[in-house]
Specification:
The complex is a heterodimer. Chain A has helices at 2-15, 40-43, 72-84, 126-134, 164-174; strands at 59-65, 90-96, 143-146, 158-160, 179-188, 193-202, 206-226, 234-247, 254-261, 266-274, 284-292, 298-304. Chain A is of the alpha+beta class. By secondary structure, chain B is mainly β. Chain B has helices at residues 6-25, 189-192, 194-198, 319-323; strands spanning 33-45, 60-72, 75-84, 95-108, 112-119, 121-123, 129-131, 133-134, 139-140, 143-153, 156-170, 173-188, 201-213, 226-238, 241-250, 265-276, 279-289, 333-345, 357-369, 372-373, 383-384, 390-407, 412-424, 436-449, 454-464, 472-481, 485-493, 505-515, 518-527, 530-534, 537-541, 544-554. In chain B, the strands form 5 sheets. Chain B has a 24-stranded mixed sheet that branches. In chain B, strands 6-7 form a two-stranded antiparallel sheet. Chain B has a two-stranded antiparallel ribbon with strand order 8-9. The two termini of chain B are 36 Å apart. The chains are: A alpha+beta, B mainly beta. At the A-B interface, helix 1 and helix 2 of A face strand 10, strand 12, strand 13 and strand 14 of B.
Chain lengths: 306, 555
């Protein structure tokens, strides 16, 4: 009887309990709920996504520039014009990087140099510098990439300013939507944190490896810019548009579709990101895109503001 | 006068008489025996804007309960009929209709005791598990499942149970969503080793394991679907001394109550007592933290509680002390201490006089636990705390009271009671204000025996405070004609209210008739809004005006 009793007790201990070390669902990326300035569990408005009825492919125009690049503002204006002419289907991101990563155009002045404090803000970020050096062939600034696509007759995705509009139109007209995204972004100034929730969806059957990239972007940064179209060339209050601050989920993003994936497959990811100290007190947005991990070509891109 | 519909009362009275008659027929059927009781309370509500008395659309309420238990040999079974037509004001709104609210069948012998259906039980002090009914509070967390008790050896008792908890009554019983599983072992060494008892020692130990299961589908958090709690306890008695203690640990249990933190909870309760003829001393200490333990993580108030957290404060019976600022246990955390001394001055001494004098002194104090908030709390642990380390700036409740009972003659006996209390109305949301309420309360209770059959009892109570509703006075006069009749009047007067219109007399007349195991009671008048507490669990009672008829009978 005592054996039976011990067995009886043991059964209950096997039921035991679920000890939860990390209460955040495992589908999350770098998601730090301590950045929420309140009771995350009871107060945070965690989004759910409905059916995505979008049928349009968007375009990411990555505009590689430098604050000491006097020829760049013309390209920058061109990029903004293309963006505003396409009803939200073109998203421009300013990437401060050049040939070899940091060239003379991205140079910053340190305290003690005679030009200081002009051009003292470091607009570069780790991811942008990596793209400029890894996606080979960037001739210099200003140059850009249109959905990182290698167009017919080209060997690299780098496109000169004069061709941007044509290339953008080509992609928009093809409208080959193979994957899509939905995203919600919350920003908490108390902790300078972006809370990013993304749902990726395969719109067709996919094979290969695809990564999700998330850019933290400052919408307008007012600071020095060299501009050869005006005199004097050093413009103190230049509006730097959609400046890429850094990647929320790593330089090369994180895998979202791997191997063979059937249409309508959805993947949910959550991230947090702390705005770098040099760029606080601004307006922000998050640019999300899905790219082929081997060719870099972008399947879809969206931009969402908190 | 009240515009009461007399037909309601007549139907109700006739049904009671019929019920009483019918039950009498069930005794000793099929060779077994039937036992039970019936309790019924009917209220008619009348409007009264001076006290903001509530009147439900039905204008009446009825709570009725009938327990019928049958046993034959080692077999037993029973049911409880319940009626809420509709439920009395202050009761949970989800109690409605008539039907079976409790049913069970069981078998027991010296070795085993098994119950299927509904059952109540308690492990240790209840801090880890207690299924119980407190009808006056509308609290009933009866288990519904199977309960097994095994006695493999004298002095050893092993209990196992699995079931769901009662949550709702709508013409039938509805259980909550969670499942409770539990085992408990109690060992009484003084039964196993009788020589211990012969030498004046009693020694018992016990341990419990309780686990609840509730499914979780949160997109935001990984919620533990199985939550466990453990308890260990012991009790030592040696002659006049006794010491018992229990410790409980609860694993991560994020819930509405604790703001979904994943911190473990704990509870420690220790009691030390000494008694001899004419003297009793009790010292108690308790520390609990994050110990709300329910079978539904979203449940509130008194719903679906798996455990019971005793209040270390004296339960008062005089209405100003008992119902205006009573202390209710705060499951999220408290550190409490209580001391009680009872002393009887012997007869024919200076203070004892001819009949002796009883003195009782009680002091209790309750604080919040000291919480060390975790900064950048990525894993939702909330805070850390240490047992019995309190936050000195967070007094929840303090009560000093002294009671002197004295018989002056064969016919006259009196009680004099004084209370000094500090009540944190921001921690216990029962008052009409927040912050601290400091009260002085005095009670004089006198009973005068006119002759063998007639006696009169009077209470005069005063409560003085500068906060909340100000000063109160209560007068109670009861005239008893033994053994059947008691007639009384109670007047509670909020004479110190800062708002003149609220200086209301709550006048209530009572009449009760007792015959054998039957009691009928009639109340007419106003009852103020207040808090009704039993053992640290409280229910808010709204102000009402009207007629209450209650009936109890045992068979």
């Amino acid at each position: 009887m005592i054996r039976l009793s011990i067995l009886f007790i043991s059964l209950f201990f096997f039921i035991a309990c679920d000890r939860v070390e990390n209460p955040i669902p495992q589908n999350s990326g770098a998601y730090d709920i301590s950045l929420y300035p309140g009771n995350y569990a009871t107060d945070y408005n965690y989004p759910s996504f409905g059916t995505n009825s979008n049928t349009n492919l968007n375009v990411l125009l990555e505009y590689y520039t430098g604050h000491q690049c006097g020829n760049c503002p013309i390209a920058g204006t061109n990029a903004k014009n293309i963006e505003s002419a396409n009803n939200g289907r073109v998203i421009v991101v300013s990437e401060h990087a050049g040939a070899g990563g940091i060239s003379q155009y991205q140079r910053i002045y340190d305290p003690g140099e005679p030009e200081y404090p002009k051009y003292s803000r470091n607009f570069t970020n780790e991811a942008g510098l990596a793209y400029a050096t890894t996606i080979t062939g960037i001739p210099g600034n200003p140059y850009g990439m249109i959905n990182r696509k290698i167009f017919s007759g080209a060997t690299t995705p780098w496109v000169s300013n004069s061709q941007w509009a044509n290339r953008v139109n080509t992609v928009l007209q093809e409208n080959n939507l193979r994957a899509d995204l939905q995203m919600e972004v919350n920003y908490f100034p108390q902790t300078h944190a972006l809370f990013v929730h993304v749902e990726s969806e395969a719109k067709t059957n996919l094979s290969g490896n695809y990564n999700l990239f998330l850019y933290a972007v400052a919408k307008d940064v007012i600071d020095w810019q060299k501009d050869y179209t005006v005199f004097p060339n050093d413009v103190e209050f230049y509006e730097h548009h959609n400046v890429h601050l850094g990647n929320i989920n790593g330089t090369w993003g994180q895998p979202v579709f791997e191997g063979t994936v059937t249409a309508n497959t959805k993947v949910r990811k959550d991230y947090t990101y702390v705005i770098p100290e040099a760029f606080r007190g601004l307006n922000y947005a998050v640019v999300a895109f899905i790219a082929d991990a081997s060719t870099y070509e972008i399947l879809q891109v969206i931009k969402v503001e908190p | 006068m009240f515009s009461m519909k007399c037909s309601n009362l007549i139907i109700w009275a006739v049904s009671l008489c019929t019920a009483q008659f019918s039950f009498a027929q069930f005794e000793n059927i099929l060779g077994g025996s039937v036992m039970g009781n019936i309790e019924s309370t009917f209220q008619y509500y009348a409007p009264d804007s001076t006290i903001n008395a509530q009147v439900p659309p039905s204008k009446t309420g009825l709570n009725s309960f009938a327990n019928i238990n049958y046993s034959i040999g080692k077999f037993r079974a029973g049911v409880r009929f319940e009626s809420y037509l509709p439920a009395l004001l202050g009761y949970p709104a989800r109690f409605n209709g008539t039907g079976l609210g409790y049913r069970y069948a069981g078998y027991s012998n010296d070795f085993i005791e098994v119950t299927v259906g509904n059952f109540y039980d308690q492990f240790g002090s209840g801090m880890v598990f207690r299924a119980f009914e407190e009808r006056q509070l509308g609290l009933d967390n009866a288990m519904d499942g199977i309960h097994l008790k095994i006695r493999p050896y004298k002095g050893i008792e092993l209990t196992g149970l699995i079931g769901k908890q009662r949550y709702e009554f709508n013409s039938q019983l509805f259980n909550g969503p969670g499942t409770v599983r539990a085992v408990n072992l109690d060992v009484d060494f003084s039964t196993i080793f009788p020589k211990l008892l012969e030498k004046g020692w009693q020694f018992t130990v016990g341990g419990s394991f309780v686990s609840k299961f509730q499914t979780a589908q949160s997109p935001i958090l990984i919620l533990p679907e199985n939550v466990a709690a453990y308890a260990a306890r012991f009790k030592v008695v040696y002659k006049g001394f006794n010491f018992n203690a229990e410790g409980v640990l609860k694993e991560n249990d994020p819930s509405d109550n604790n703001g979904y933190i994943y911190k473990n909870g704990y509870g420690i309760l220790a009691n030390f007592g000494y008694s001899q003829k004419g003297l009793g001393i009790l010292v108690q200490a308790k520390a609990i933290d994050n110990m709300s333990f329910r079978s539904d993580r979203t449940a509130q108030l008194t719903d679906l509680q798996i455990n019971f957290l005793p209040a270390l404060t004296k339960t008062h019976t005089y209405n100003l002390a008992a119902t205006l600022y009573p202390y209710a246990t705060i499951p999220n955390g408290e550190v409490a201490f209580q001391g009680d001394i009872f002393y009887t001055f012997a007869k024919e001494t200076l203070l004892g006089g001819k009949y002796g004098t009883k003195v009782s002194i009680n002091f209790s104090t309750v604080y919040d636990v000291k919480r060390n908030i975790i900064e950048r709390d990525s894993f939702l642990r909330g805070y850390t705390s240490t047992p019995f380390v309190l936050n000195p700036d967070s007094l929840f409740f303090r009560d000093f009271n002294i009671e002197i009972s004295k018989k002056f003659s064969k016919n006259l006996s009196m009680k004099f009671i004084y209370f000094n209390q500090a009540f944190n109305a921001s921690a216990n949301i029962v008052a009409q204000s927040t912050g601290y309420i400091y009260t002085n309360i005095a009670v004089v209770d006198m009973t005068y025996k006119i002759n063998k059959k007639h006696s009169i009892r009077a209470e005069l109570q005063g409560l003085w405070t500068k906060q909340d509703q100000g000063d109160w006075a209560t007068l109670v006069v009861e005239y008893t004609i033994s053994p059947n009749w008691t007639i009384g009047i109670i007047d509670q007067w909020n004479y110190g209210n800062k708002t003149e219109e609220k200086r209301v007399h709550y006048l209530l007349a009572t009449l009760s008739y007792i015959k054998g195991s039957t009691r009928l009671m009639l109340n007419v008048g106003k009852q103020r809004a207040g808090i009704f507490c039993v053992g640290g669990i409280c229910r808010q009672v709204p102000a009402s005006n009207g007629v209450t008829v209650s009936f109890t009978h045992s068979f």
